[in-house]
Structure formats: C-alpha cells, structure tokens
Amino acid sequence: MPASSSASASVRRHVLAALVTNEPGVLAQVAGMFAARGFNIDSLVVGRTDNPELSRMTIVVPGDDAVLEQVRKQLQKLVPVVKVVDYHEVPYVERDLVLVTVATGKPREDGQEDGRGATEYREEIASLATLFRAKVVDVAADRLMIELAGEESKLENFIELLKPYGILELARTGVIAMPRGMAPKARVAEEKKTVDAADLPPG
Q1: Lower Cβ count inside 10 Å, N or C end of the chain?
Q2: Is 202 part of a structural domain of the chain?
C-alpha cells in the first residue's frame, strides 16, 4: 500500500511547449506518437506564431518524471519539431478559456421549486459570473452564454457551480502557457534545426 501511494504521488501535471513547422499533418504526427506509446494527453492546443513558417503547441501531460522524459525524447525525434520546452520547474502563466451556455428558463436541476422565473435565474447566474470575472456574451429568453478565461482549476470550479442550473452546451480551448518575465530558463530539449532565437517559444 505505501508503494502505491508513493507512485501516485509522483504523478504530476506537466506543461510542455513545442515549436513545430507549419505544415499539413503535424498535429496528426504528434497525436499519433502519444497514442502509439500510450502517453495520455490532458490538453493539446496548436496555433500560429508571428512567424508563418512555425506553429506553437502547448501540451498538458500527466505522469512522473520518467514519463515526461520519454515524452520529450519522442517529441524531439519527430521531423517537424524544432524545439521542446518544459515549464514544470519555472513560474509560468497559463490560461484556458470556456464558453458555456446555461439554461435560465427552467427550474434548477436540484429540484428546487421556489417560484422564480427566467429573470431571477438570469440575475443569479450573472451575479455568479461577476464573482468569477466572467463575461456574459449572449442573452436569450431561456439561456445565457458566458465566457471565462483563467487557470483550469478556476474554470472547473465555475462549471461545477453552473451545473445545477442546467448546462446546455460547453466548449473549451485547452491550456496555453508562457513563463513569467523574470523566470529562469525552462528546461529545453536539444534543437535539431537552425532557427532565429526570436522565433522560439519563451524559456
């Protein structure tokens, strides 16, 4: 039993950034590598950079240090990957974004029958959104759409509080991250290609 507890304690959440060439099929190669080797992905986000030839992937991977080391090595072997950065050992900023549509025109899912109508529920949900610094981006007769950006834990807490009202639809972007301005150098895998340092992910 103690060995099992120790093993579970060593499993951590790691955030990696990978700079890749902007060409068709790169995302499929990265996802295929994870699937073929049994690595789990909590989140994978890819987007363009200021260099049209390069894209940036932010990958959230659960696992111990040995798993992370294998992930880094396997990523670096892929031809389109220019550089891999690990944010585990440095202070960094991460953001996730959620759009969630919540019902306001029906009783709460917890079965409360207090006689309130859609207006009262809208005001209650809008007040909750204000507490989390979320934005109401669309209003209809029987629903609200809310936008919230922040760390994963903040989004999860907000979503849990909205569930009793009835979540109609939900979409999340996944995590993006960058090291803080005064942070020391993040751990970087060996670069395979010569590129301008300004084009590389921070760290």
Answers
A1: N
A2: no
State both tokens at 179. 């090291």
Give burial (CB, 10 Å; 0-12/13-18/19+) of 94: middle
Single-letter code of the amino acid located at 66? A
Question: Helix 65-77 vs helix 26-36: angle between axes, to the nearest 10 degrees?
Answer: 140
Query: What does the mean pLDDT of the chain come to?
Result: 82
Which CATH number belongs to the domain containing residue 134 in this structure?
Answer: 3.30.70.1150
Structural tokens at position 129: 């959104």
Is there a single domain that holds both residue 59 and residue 102?
Answer: no
3-class secondary structure, 133: coil
CA distance 63 to 67: 6
Q: Which one, of 133, 169, 170, lies nearest residue 154 by Cα? A: 133
Place of tokens 């960094």: 92
pLDDT in tens, 1-42: 444 444 444 778 889 999 999 888 898 999 889 888 888 889
